Amino acid sequence: MGIVLKQSLKNTLVTYIGFGIGAINTLFLYTRFLTDEYYGLVGVLLSAAAVLMPLLAFGVPNTMVKFYSSYKETKELDSFLTLMLLLPLALIIPIAAISFFSYDIIGDLLSKENPIVEGYVYHIFLIGMAMAYFEVFYAWAKVQMKSVFGNFMKEVFIRVCIMVLLFLVYFNTISVETFLKALVVVYMVRTILMKLYAHYLRKTKINFNFPNNTKQIISYSTLIILGGSAAVILLEVDKVMINQYIKIENVAYYSVAIFIATVIAVPSRAMHQITYPLTGELMNRKNIKELKVLYQKSSLTLFMIAGPIYLLIILNLNDLYDLLPEDYSNGFIVVFLIGLAKIYDALLGNNNAILYNSEYYKTVMLMGVFLAICTILFNMWLIPNYGLIGAAYATFLALSIYNTIKIFFVKIKFNMQPFTIEITKVLLLLLILGGTFYFLQLPFHPILNIVVKSVSLMILYISIIYKFKISEDVYGILSKYIKRS
Question: How far apart are CA 251 and CA 45, in angstroms?
Fold first, then answer.
């Protein structure tokens, strides 16, 4: 876990910097510099593009991680990487044609409830295409065990650019319409920069003599499209469907609540950048013993980090909402439910990497598609009846079902599961701390209340996990910093 922790810590730092900037954008700039309607429009455009992205990427990011380490010769790698660059075009070109010739039909469908969305079909496609190729080049870097720059571009660069654009709107330097066009440009520039870095790490000569297992690669990529689309649908389709049933301003309110809850997932996102290629390598070597160790350690480490973050959010949520415009302050249940779903995600450790790199990936893809359909049906049922809370319940139910199935599947097929006695210890600690701090109500300014409760809770939490050495890896990291101080 040494290389995992080292790069994960760097990625976690970068991601939290990005989330800090994102918090300023999401909680304060968007809510004050754009109208609720236009903020909701931005949420719909980005979520729709994210749903489209796995299809446009043709499963290449996952395929690259799975197959890259199996090639030893330079020519073989060149031919493989050439194929990886070309595969997305197989869907990008026809989907671009469909978008062009069916622009009015797609626009009418998206704007059924909210007419403002009608004129932005091209924005969705171009951002989705930029996201797709960014992930391709990001995977190119990850297989070289270099994930920090890509993470910086994904988490920090894009948010800094959006912050600048929002200030330009505020100072009337650009219009909101120009802001939306510039958003497309920013995503495309990010992709170009990621491409340059990927080729800096590993230059490739174009070789159209594709690998002998090209048929297997394309088959895997096609199935990954289904799995990747299912995963994104579970996370993003709720915003798109809110737009279809209720006023678009609600997308803005929901986006704020979702962003707050998504902070819990930052450690998972950071660690997965490095555990995914490591898992692929262990699977290729059929080293199940080390894979089990990685599975359980990644689960414990992520839970130990995500758990207290969830506590901090829930305990400080009322104070945080006091800092926002009143219309945004009704998302407590949304944050609570989505936060629980993110905690469950953390407990899975590198479960996804195991499944996607195994021989059972076809079954997993089909399960994902089934649950994506369930998510859409849950949203169709719950959003018209319960609004934003209905969208949160739909996402929570779908993710909980999906994660439970994945845990049992890995247990049955590989005879391993992520849970250990240490996880129980962490859970008990979190429940005790949560129960204690829940009744601590401070009379100060909301920011001061948040700081005091957060610092007090974290000092207690870190002191206890250090004293009782619940995790060897976490204890080792803490020991280095404590000894230095």
Answer: 11
Question: What is the chain's percent helix, strand, coil content, to nearest 5?
Answer: 85, 0, 15
- Amino acid (1-letter code) at residue 266: V
Distance CA(475)–CA(467), nearest Å, equals 9
Q: Cβ-count burial of 363 within 10 angstroms (0-12 exposed, 13-18 middle, 19+ buried)?
A: middle
Is this model's pTM higher than 0.85 or not?
no
Residue position matching structure tokens 């994904």: 154
> Tokens for 484?
């230095």
* Spatial separation of the C-alpha atoms in residues 356 and 364, rounded to whole Å: 8
CA-nearest of 145, 243, 125, 131 to 202 is 145
Number of helical H runs and strand E runs in the chain: 21, 0
Asked whether the beta carbons of 71 and 246 are under 8 A apart, the reply is no
Whole-number Cα distances in Å, 333 to 57, 128, 137, 318: 34, 30, 37, 12
| 118: number of Cβ within 10 Å | 16
Q: Which residue has the tokens 């959003």?
A: 383
- Give pLDDT tens digits for 283-341: 878 888 888 888 888 888 889 889 999 999 999 988 888 888 888 877 889 999 999 99
Q: Using CA atoms, how far apart are residues 340 and 317, in angstroms rounded to an integer?
A: 15
Q: How far apart are CA 85 and CA 97, in angstroms?
A: 20
Distances (CA, A) of 100 to 90, 173, 178, 240, 279: 17, 31, 21, 21, 41
Matching residue, tokens 């678009």: 248
Task: Indicate the residue type of 339.
Answer: G
155 neighbors 17 (Cβ within 8 angstroms): yes
Residues 450, 321: Cα–Cα separation, whole Å: 11
Provide φ and ψ at 47, rounded to 5°: -70, -40
361 near 216, Cβ under 8 Å?
no
In the numeric block, the tokens 């497309």 are attached to 184
Give the three-state DSSP class for 279: helix
Report the C-alpha gap between 295 and 348 in whole angstroms.
8
Q: Residue 1 has what pLDDT?
A: 47
| Residue 291, both tokens | 């894979």
Amino acid at 102: S
Q: What percent of the chain has pLDDT over 90?
A: 38
Q: Return d(Cα 6, Cα 1) in angstroms, integer.
A: 8
The candidate with the shortest Cα–Cα distance to 299, out of 244, 354, 253, 247, is 354
Q: How far is CA 484 from CA 55, 160, 397, 464, 481, in A?
A: 48, 33, 45, 19, 5
324 Ramachandran zone, left/alpha/beta (phi>0; psi -120 to 50): beta
- Token output for 425: 């210890």
DSSP secondary structure letters along 198-210: HHHHS------S-
